[in-house]
Every structure is written in C-alpha cells, then in structure tokens.
C-alpha cells in the first residue's frame, strides 16, 4: 500500500484524540528514578522537602489509545520507539493527578537502517489537577512502510 | 587541507547541532580541521548564510545535500538550480542512476554515503539488484558506522576501484571531525571541492 | 559545593557513568513505569521477538542520561531532553553514558549538553541533547 504522507498529515495532525488521567505515587517516582541511577535526593527521597518526579517521568505514560480510532493501519504493524523529547514545565509531585491530552503532532518519512520508515510524532501535553501545564512529551514512533512517498 | 564532508545542523529534521557550536567546538578542541560541509537531509539549505562564522572562526563552511535513493543515501556536492530542477531532493526513492547522471550533467559530484550500512548503503543494494554505473567516489569512512560497516565500504571501494572520502555524519556538536578527508590542494569554495572530488585527489582519514 | 553556570566552560565533559542495566534493575524500572513487555523483562521473550536478548527501554536510557546530568550538577534543572534511540542497549551489558557541554546561553543561564550512551563496542546506541539551567 502506498501511503500519501501529506494527506495523512492534513487529515490527522493537530487535534486531541485522547485524554487520560494518571495518579502519581511516591513509590513509583522513587523506583523510576533510582533504577535509572538517579542520586539527587529531590528525586529519590520522599522526605526531601522538594521531592518531585525526575524531569523525564512523563515519558512513561501512554494514553488509552496510541493513535486515533480510525487512523489507517500502515505497513506490517511492526513499530518501534525512535526517540522521545521531554519538556518539563513545572514540578510533578506525589499525589498529583496529571491529565494527558494526546494528538498527532507530525508525520513524515525517511529511510534508515530499518528500511523505509514512516515516523509518527505523538505529542502528549500534561497538566496537573489545578490545570497548570507540567510537561510536554513528543514521542517519535516508527512504522516500517515500504510504500510511503 | 582537511575537510569533514558530511554533517547535519538543526536545519535537518534529526540534526541537533547549531553551526556556530560546531565552529566553537573545533576551536576549543584545537581540531586541525580547515572546514566542514553541511549535508542537510533531503534538501538544500539556500537560506542560511555562514560567511560571518567563516570569518570569525577562520573555517570554511560549505553546503551540500544528502538525498535518498533506491540504492541508499547519497551526498550531493556542487548543488545548483539546474540540479534541483533535475530531481526532487525531498523524495526518499530517487533512482540512483538518475541522481548520478543528473548531478554529473549539472556539474556536481554524487557520493554514496555510509555504503556499508544495511538498507541505506550501496553495498546491500549492489548485492541484491546489481551494480549501477557512474559511481566514482563513495564514503569509505563514516563517523556513525557500526561494527563492520566501514570495512564493507572499503571492500566495496577496492572491488570497484572507487575513491573514498571520510565524513562524520555528525548530528550533534561533539561528533564532528570523527572522519575527515585530506586534500593536497587548497579548497576555497564549493566549486573547488567539486573539482578536487572529480580529480580524485584526496584520502579518507579516521579520527574516531 | 554544587556546580553553577559560571563554573562551566564550553566543552566541559561530564564524568561518564556506567549505568546498571542488569535484568533485576531493568525489571525494577519497568515495574515502576508500567512496562510489562517481555522484550524488556525476559531474555527468552525478547529472543522470540527476534532480538538477541532483552533490551533496555528507551525511556530508561533517557533517565540514565538525566541521572548523569544530576550527578555532575545536582542543582541543575533540565529544561528539555531530546533523545534518539538509534539502536537497542542490551540488558546485562556494560554501557557507558557520557555528556559534554556544547553551548552556553548567558541570558537564560542555560547550557546545551550532548549526550550519548555507547555499548562495549563503543557504538553510540543512544544520542541526545539536553537544555539545562544552572544556578
């Protein structure tokens, strides 16, 4: 199947297709941080007065849907995580309820060691229970797609 | 004269390096590099003007492109309007034969890069689909190569009598000048680079 | 004394780290991150997917690079971190994480850091950049 990337972009980028809520626990914050070798106490010690999530903590969250319900199935379905860009905006602390809104931010193709690849940039914007923005994560998902143009 | 012939700046979608930072890095590390070429992916950057940086840092900054063909990625030097009219730099499936022929016709040089890499390198495609005539120079040393990829590139060059260049394929500042090309003659601009590449008077050098 | 903006020069290298990517640690990470996939948690499951063995999750690699920054400058505030997962890091391998300062912005008192994780063969498997504010 040949994929018209420009049409995909026109049809599917720039609108929220999923909203999900997550509760933040101190134990998960500590486990996440310490498994990565984090040593700063404000990320590893709940007793620290400034205890908070590590800057890239929101990269762990996935919404209820990765793509919009009727987004076309592309390629073999085999995909992988090509990269993540995290922009922390405000601290996330235990007990926070963060709301994540997902959209497709960009779609493009290129060729690489894995063949012809279709990149879908999935953006999640996170806010806390007070409605304050706390983080943005751009997740570059790769789908191998031989017919992309 | 030593040039790094393959680098990307923030103009490329996956480039994270600012050109000024490349210059600062070269100066700070006292790297004996006389210049570098920006080979942005699937485009030619005719907007950016690096003359002030060249003057400030005393380093030659040239512009070229990296295009994508049915035989892998290809560096294109000496880009001009005729060449850009001859084939669509944004496509990811350009016929290699077309890129070689039209680049030559328009006065440039096309150099398949990282030829030892799976899928995006010439080596695999030659094996699978046969040799394409018109290749004279390939990138035998690439800063991003893994495992035996450079060895495969060198074997390809030896088998077919291709000349080899070196380029870092840097996408972040600290990866510039890992692989370079040494020219016996001075090169002052893009035309001079094309002349030297056509003359075959150069050697690939690894600084990894 | 914690490192501040004025203490850092362009080109400064962060002390490299040898992150713990043993199966036990990766499992601890995936439990916290809610990642139940076999490719991260079990070598035999990963092999069934065609991988040579279990692999470190990309976001754990990113966390390793964040930790590298905080070990060097505990009061650093990461304003942005962008990582490209070029190739997998094997679980139970011995990678090395590195960082080097490649830009300074006096107005925002932020620096840019190039980040890499290399495997034992010195292949760069993860590459990235971070924008970091220093006091």
**Which two chains share the most extensive interface?**
A-C, 28 and 34 residues
- Tally of helical runs of chain B: 7
- Find the count of extended strands of chain B (DSSP E, 2+ residues): 9
- Quote the average pLDDT of chain C: 96
Give, in order, the helices and strands of chain C.
EHHHHEEEE
DSSP summary: helix tally of chain C: 4
Order of the strands making up the biggest sheet of chain B: 5-4-3-2-1-8-9
Low-confidence stretches of chain B: none
State the share of residues found in helices of chain C, binned by percent: 25-40%
Gross geometry of chain C: elongated
Radius of gyration of chain C: 16 Å
Annotation, overall tally of beta strands of chain C: 5
Report how far apart the termini of chain C are: 12 Å
Helix content of chain B: 25-40%
Major sheet size, sense and barrel closure of chain B = 7 strands, mixed
Straight-line distance between termini of chain B: 19 Å
Portion in strands of chain B? 25-35%
Report the average pLDDT across residues of chain B: 97
Shape of chain B: globular
Q: Classify the secondary structure makeup of chain B into a structural class.
A: alpha/beta
Quick tags:
heterotrimer, B: 208 residues, alpha/beta, 25% strand, C: 135 residues, alpha+beta, 4 helices, 5 strands
Describe the structure.
The complex is a heterotrimer of chains A (149), B (208) and C (135). Chain A has 149 residues and is mainly beta. In chain A, 15% of the residues lie in helices and 40% in strands. Chain A has three helices and five strands; from the N terminus they run H-E-H-H-E-E-E-E. Chain A has a five-stranded antiparallel sheet with strand order 1-3-4-5-2, covered by helices on one side. Chain B is globular. Chain B starts with a strand and ends with a strand. Chain C has a five-stranded antiparallel sheet with strand order 1-3-4-5-2, with helices on one face. Chain C has four helices and five strands; from the N terminus they run E-H-H-H-H-E-E-E-E. Chain C has helices spanning 23-33, 38-41, 43-48, 58-72, and strands spanning 13-17, 77-85, 96-105, 110-118, 124-133. By secondary structure, chain C is an alpha+beta fold. Classes of the chains: A mainly beta (149), B alpha/beta (208), C alpha+beta (135). Chains A and C meet through helix 2 and strand 2 of A and helix 1, helix 4 and strand 2 of C.
């Amino acid at each position: 199947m040949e994929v018209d990337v420009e049409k995909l972009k026109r049809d599917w980028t720039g609108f929220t297709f999923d909203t999900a809520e997550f509760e933040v626990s101190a134990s998960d914050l500590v486990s996440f941080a310490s498994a990565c070798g984090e040593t700063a106490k404000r990320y590893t010690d709940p007793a620290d007065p400034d205890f908070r999530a590590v800057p890239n903590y929101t990269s762990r969250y996935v919404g209820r849907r990765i793509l919009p319900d009727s987004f076309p199935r592309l390629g073999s379905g085999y995909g992988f995580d090509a990269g993540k860009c995290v922009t922390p905006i405000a601290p996330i602390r235990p007990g926070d309820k963060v709301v994540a809104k997902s959209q497709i931010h960009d779609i493009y193709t290129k060729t690489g060691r894995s063949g012809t690849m279709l990149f879908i940039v999935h953006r999640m914007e996170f806010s806390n229970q007070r409605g304050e923005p706390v983080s943005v994560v751009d997740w570059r998902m790769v789908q191998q797609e031989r017919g992309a143009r | 004269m030593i040039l790094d012939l393959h680098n990307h700046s923030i103009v490329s979608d996956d480039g994270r390096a600012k050109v000024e930072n490349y210059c600062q890095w070269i100066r700070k590390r006292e790297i004996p590099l006389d210049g570098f070429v920006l080979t942005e992916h699937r485009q030619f950057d005719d907007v950016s003007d690096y003359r002030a940086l060249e003057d400030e840092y005393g380093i030659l900054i040239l512009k070229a492109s990296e295009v994508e063909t049915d035989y892998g990625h290809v560096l294109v030097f000496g880009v001009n309007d005729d060449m850009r009219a001859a084939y669509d730099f944004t496509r990811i499936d350009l016929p290699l034969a077309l890129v070689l022929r039209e680049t030559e016709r328009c006065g440039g040089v096309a150099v398949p890069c990282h030829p030892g890499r799976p899928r995006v390198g010439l080596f695999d495609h030659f094996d699978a689909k046969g040799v394409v005539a018109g290749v004279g120079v390939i990138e035998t040393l690439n800063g991003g190569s893994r495992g035996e990829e450079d060895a495969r590139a060198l074997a390809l060059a030896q088998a077919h009598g291709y000349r080899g260049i070196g380029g870092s394929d840097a996408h972040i500042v600290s990866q510039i000048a890992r692989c370079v090309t040494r020219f016996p003659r001075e090169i002052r601009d893009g035309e001079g680079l094309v002349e030297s590449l056509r003359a075959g008077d150069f050697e690939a050098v690894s600084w990894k | 004394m914690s490192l501040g903006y004025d203490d850092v020069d362009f080109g400064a290298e962060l002390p490299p780290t040898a992150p713990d990517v043993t199966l036990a640690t990766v499992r601890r990470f995936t439990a916290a991150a809610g990642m139940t996939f076999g490719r991260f948690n079990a070598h035999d499951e990963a092999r069934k997917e065609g991988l040579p063995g279990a692999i470190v999750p990309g976001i754990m690699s990113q966390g390793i690079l964040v930790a590298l920054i905080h070990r060097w400058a505990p009061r650093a505030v990461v304003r942005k971190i962008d990582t490209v997962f070029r190739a997998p890091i094997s679980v139970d391998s011995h990678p090395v994480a590195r960082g080097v300062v490649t830009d300074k912005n006096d107005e925002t008192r932020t620096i840019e850091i190039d980040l890499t994780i290399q495997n034992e063969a010195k292949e760069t498997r993860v590459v990235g950049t971070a924008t970091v504010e220093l006091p």
